[in-house]
Amino acid sequence: MADSLTYEELVAEAEADPRVLVRVERAGAVATVTLDDPAKYNVLSAPLTVQLRRHLQALVADRGVRVIVLTGADPAFSAGGDVRLMAKVRRIREESDDGAVGLWRWIRQQFGGIARLIAQSDTTVIAAVNGAAAGVGLAFAYASDLVIASERARLVPAFGHIGLVPEVGTSWLLTRRIGYQRAFELFVSGRELTGAEAAALGLVNHVVPHERLLEEAHGWAARVTAVPDAIVSLAKPLLRRAADATWEQAIAMEEFAEPMCFTTAGHRDAVDRFLGRRG
């Protein structure tokens, strides 16, 4: 490898890695995406990160996929950023002509790119947290539309302990869910949360026995697919943006979305079923 390292070289090196570190399984409208480097606790190495982003891009572009279940190969969901990768991307800052911009590209286009695919696509993403979820891996879970946790789950907000601020949308998500003071407490303490503690704080939706985790996540996927696709596609961005909108802005978004719902087959079929039951 050359003494200097550009963002493009790091991506090319990652793409050349022959290992399969992300598995995708399709079952109808549901795709299960598994981070698959269990010996390293599914750490977000450059190859795994690039593979994850590429698979998610393809899945959210596929109109046949309505739900993505994101999980990790036991024993972890994801240990977060790879310390070895952090050393490499530091070389982008120190040795390339782009300086910190090269490092910014990795954070924005890879880590941030994955978070944006999860949060901003019309596809529903369900995080099935099967074990430890730390740092950026935890950020991906927080960005999901539903979070189902195994009783073995451990949520580790470890940014401060490795000399980093909350990143990849974590500061926005945490402060809105648990408030500034609790978010600050988690940041400075780095205290890991059990699934039950995270549920009590509103950071996960449900905690289930470990052996039932994927069954529960796929049960929620079935609930999503039971709702007409067009309606979920409209509801996701509306609900995502409502937290930062005024009441007037929120009601205006709903007023624009509702007439479109009336034109869909899903709404017409639901009305016909209701009227049929009423006789």
Folded structure, characterized:
The protein has 279 residues and is an alpha/beta fold. Helix content is 54%, strand content 15%. The strands form 2 sheets. A 6-stranded mixed beta sheet has the order 1-2-3-5-7-10, with helices on both faces. Helix 6 crosses helix 7 (180-189). The mean pLDDT is 90.
Number of domains: 2
- From the spread of the alpha carbons, the general shape counts as globular
CATH homologous superfamily of the largest domain?
2-enoyl-CoA Hydratase, Chain A, domain 1
**Structure class:** alpha/beta
Mean pLDDT: 90
CATH topology of the largest domain: 2-enoyl-CoA Hydratase, Chain A, domain 1
Q: CATH architecture of the largest domain, please?
A: Alpha-Beta Complex
Spatial strand sequence of the major β-sheet = 1-2-3-5-7-10
Number of strands: 10
Cα-atom Rg, whole angstroms? 20 Å
* Termini Cα gap: 74 Å
Strand-residue proportion: 15-25%
Tell me the number of helical segments per DSSP (H or I, 4 or more residues long): 12
Q: Uncertain spans, ≥5 residues at pLDDT below 50?
A: none
Instruction: State the share of residues found in helices, binned by percent.
Output: 40-55%
Largest sheet geometry = 6 strands, mixed
Q: What is the C-level CATH assignment of the largest domain?
A: Alpha Beta
- SSE string, helices as H and strands as E: HEEHEEHHEEHEEHHEHEHHHH
